[in-house]
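Cross-posting from the chemistry board since nobody answered there.

I work mostly on the small-molecule side, so proteins are not my area. We synthesized pyridoxal-5'-phosphate and want a rough idea of how it might sit in this target. Sequence and SMILES are below. Is it possible to get a predicted 3D structure of the two together?
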Amino acid sequence: MVKRQRLTKKKKDALERWSIDDASELYGISHWGQNLFTINDDGHVALLGSGNTPDIDLKELITEIRARGLNTPVVIRFTDILKARLKEISNAFTAAFREHSYNGDYLGVYPIKVNQHRHILEDIVEFGHEFNFGLEAGSKPELLLAIAYQNNPDAIITCNGFKDREYIEAALRARQCGHNIFIIIERPDEINSIIEIARSLDVQPQLGIRMKLASKGKGLWEGSGGANSKFGLTTSQMVEAIRTLKRRKMLPCLQLLHYHIGSQITDIQRIKSALREATAFYAEIIALGAPLAYIDVGGGLAVDYDGSHTNFTSSSNYGILEYASDVVGSITSICDEENIKHPAIITECGRAMTAHHSMLVVEAVASGGIDSRSIRVPKVPAKAPEVLQRIKDSYEWLSPKNFQEVYNDAVESRKEAMTLFNFRHLSLIDRAKVEDFFWIICRRIVKYAQKLDYTPEDLDGITALASTLYYCNFSIFQSVPDHWAIKQLFPIMPLQRLNEKPEVEAVLADITCDSDGVIDQFVDLRDVKETIALHPLKSNENYDIGIFLVGAYQAILGDLHNLFGDTTVVHVSTNDKGYIIDRTIEGDKIKDVLGYVEFNSEDVLIMLREQLEKAIANEKITSEESAEFMRLSESMLDGHTYLNRI
Ligand SMILES: *Cc1c(COP(=O)(O)O)cnc(C)c1O
């Protein structure tokens, strides 16, 4: 009885010391989730309502989704966020036009490659109609989608990427049908084909030209710009192209100048220097006789994934308003100086349009690895081996003043214990004790180190070393491939218990069999964290973790590693009463993913049945058992690829 009371009091103290403000600070939600997400009084993450819509409790939402028989991992798409982002981008240009007394149009286009799913494309065409948002295609399939789905004659379609005869012909025929479509010359050898096909179809094309700028982006995608970039014409190729067009009497078709210096340009200075170079090109090309009327500044508008508002690769040191103002300001100043008519401004910002509107919810199903909290201080008998005595002494000596030194000693002792064990001079039991001391020491050191403003270099990696693995029911390769491929950071936090102090330093492991399937880098305002603080799992609770801002690129780059398929997707919109689940797209079933790799599930069942017949003939199983096994296999094929709840 006494013990129980003490526990309750301790818990109460912990609760008093920890508030949702601490949680907000720890996970940075007020920085990266600005105007979109917050923590409510129940300690749950909530979607912030706007004027007439209430906040939406995401934990309640996911409970509702489960009640419908759907399971995590699930992608939740907030269509209102998508709508709001389109509006925000468009409004930013309207404001910038006013600020700089600009007389041109703003024509945003959505690069389809960012997320090709039908509902997103449909939403963008629908929500973007009032702002004349168009589409950008980079391949034949995307071109067909752009032509088929764009129903607004005032919106434009830009055609980028490698082009063959079919691609060019389809774009020209779409022009014939009245689409406001531009073919962007990306490489010199496209020019002659375009001219030839246009002549044979008797279509006057609208042409654009992509230049290679010397200015380029910096960071994870910097290869997209600069002299070595895959696309675009060098200065001399550009001069040559203009001569060719002039000679073939096609120069009047050249109306658009395009560049794209890469995705996620985190530093506004890069954007400005590219603009300076591009606007100089624009003026020069007009001087050479081309009737340019559009300038397409490509994509690259960065998303502040970590909320730090810096030029770090997962951040951005500018906002949409500043971006729009700089784009419009640079173009205005050169046009006014040179007395050139203000062109229509095209942007191809994909990431900034879609990233915010999707989140992934995964469930932590188990924790493991080294859980140093549950390790007890081992008993060390007087006659214990020297190495064990030594690490015990280190443990007893450990204090906030000497922890770096003690850490080095502990590492040495642990190494020595391994060697002694390998040469059979240390028993399994004693080796276990040495390791237990080591982890307890690490845990204490992590606590001390957290109080410092910096992590001493010697201790780099210790937090991760002493962390607990939280196994989550999802595949990084399918759902957040950029974390695996290029270590891009996404904001991550638990959706519940945020009024409770999270005391476990964890890294997230997915359920693929790949050791790369871990998330061990987390957003932080000043640095990158190696662990995320989480709560101990409870057997009677779904511990849900949100991975936010995954609406750009992740869905389509995801792959079938280990044959984990698409997750379920739920579309949610809000109204004055709360939320509505508009649409549910069930994730891949096992038979679907087998089909992707050419297996027919019927054949799999036939082969299985043959094996069972043999087993019956050999009296290993009964007919009834074979029936059970067949039923199980059929139901598995019809089920999802992720784990069901046990
Ligand atoms: C990928 C791409 C974009 C989109 O870039 P974001 O960083 O998503 O804005 C725009 N234009 C071209 C040519 C691209 O290849």
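Reply from a structural biologist on the board:
Welcome over. Reading the output above for you: The chain has a mean pLDDT of 91. Residues 111, 113-114, 138, 160, 260, 263-264, 298-301, 348-351 surround pyridoxal-5'-phosphate (CB under 6 Å). Happy to explain the token format if needed.
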